[in-house]
Amino acid sequence: MSRIAIVGAGGFVGTSLIESLVLDGHTEVRAVVRSYRNMAGFCRWGDAVEVRLADATNEASLVKAFEGAAVVVNLTTGVPAGIVQSTRAIYSACRKAGVPRFVHLSSAVVYGDVEQPIDDDALPLDNLWMPYARAKAESERWLRTQHDSDLDLVVLRPGIVWGVRSSHTLGFAHALARKSSFLVDGGSSIFNGIYIANLVAMIRAACAKPGKAAGFYNAGDAETVTWRQFYDALGGPLDCDPARLPVVSGEKFPWSLGAAIDAVQSQSLVNALYHRLKTRIPDGLKAAIRARLEGAYNFERHASQYAIAVAVNRELWHLQRVRHKLPVQKFARDFDFVMPVGFPEAVQQTVSWLEAIGLAVPTSESSAKLNRAIYS
């Protein structure tokens, strides 16, 4: 595999991708980061990872960062207002730098609640409520208008990226351990997720395929899993029985003061102003505000009683209303790809991680495995 330049290399997916490449002996990895403080995490890889500075919205700096790369992978997230700008800048920089292939990560949220079966080539929806979803959808629509015979464009559309070191998974786990989570319609809807190792494998396959490679692809695990099944898989080690969690109707969102504030903040102009103000507030003041909103620190990781009424997060409510699994067969066919990690193994690895960080309760079997690993 030739040199891969990764924009957004310091994020969760980026660090997982770099770790996978380096541990497999790939020595031509280039991490493209915004500032010097993002470089520290790559020092452990020594000369295997080259680090270059570039602003993801600055085309000129990106062209320099992409020189000599065979593939550019865009894993940037950032504030919604900057997602479209960075997508255009990165694509244009690939063209000017003569990069043969561009792998761009979109998101399954461009299809909203997936209220009807959708194939990989369906256009993103309009009028999405979440700023991040709107920005990803606009980026996809713009990329579809670009045609360059010298630049392959592969767009991957992952659902919830879960598993080891996933912030999403950590949030789910904390809520389950505190027995403060909820299930929409009893958890009967589809968990459109992809395990982190499976997403990394898809990105690598998109980078490595010889010849031409182009298209828009859903990225998800092979199995069809409901939210109840997902919570059941994690609940036991977290001392939580999902059957006892509050059930929320999927017909009408249960508004609260916090949800109303989020709704106002999701408006385009308000959201842009909010993120602009965030950059101007000192870190110490932001930490103080966050601490005040979160209330007193709770030393109890596992609550003894189940919540009767819960504050329903609007994003999670919508994610739990997804009606159909997004198909993933197109990528498997075009790239001769087989998903490396099945759902049971992915759950086992995730639970082991949650045990290692002290959140999940180790079973006698897992403790025995850990002792064998330590003392063998």
Task: List how many beta strands DSSP finds.
Answer: 11
Task: Identify the quaternary structure here.
Answer: single chain
Helix content: 40-55%
- Report the uncertain regions: 367-376
CATH level 4 superfamily of one domain: NAD(P)-binding Rossmann-like Domain
Number of helices, where a helix is a run of at least 4 consecutive DSSP H or I residues? 14
**What name is given to the CATH topology of one domain?**
Rossmann fold
The whole-angstrom Rg is 21 Å
**Element-by-element helix/strand order:** EHEEHEHEHEEHEEHEHEHHHHHHH
Describe this structure in words.
The protein is of the alpha/beta class. It has a domain at 4-166 and 191-223 and 324-356: Rossmann fold (3-Layer(aba) Sandwich). Helix content is 41%, strand content 12%. It is built from 14 helices and 11 strands. The protein has helices at residues 12-23, 59-66, 80-97, 131-144, 167-177, 196-208, 227-235, 257-265, 268-278, 283-294, 314-319, 329-334, 343-356, 364-375, and strands at 4-7, 29-33, 49-53, 71-74, 101-105, 152-158, 160-162, 183-184, 193-195, 215-219, 247-248. The chain has a 7-stranded parallel sheet, with helices on both faces. Strand 4 (71-74), helix 3 and strand 5 form a beta-alpha-beta unit. Helix 2 (59-66) packs across helix 3. The longest helix is centred in the N-terminal third of the chain and has 18 residues, at 80-97. The radius of gyration is 21 Å and the shape is globular. Residues 367-376 have low confidence and may be disordered.
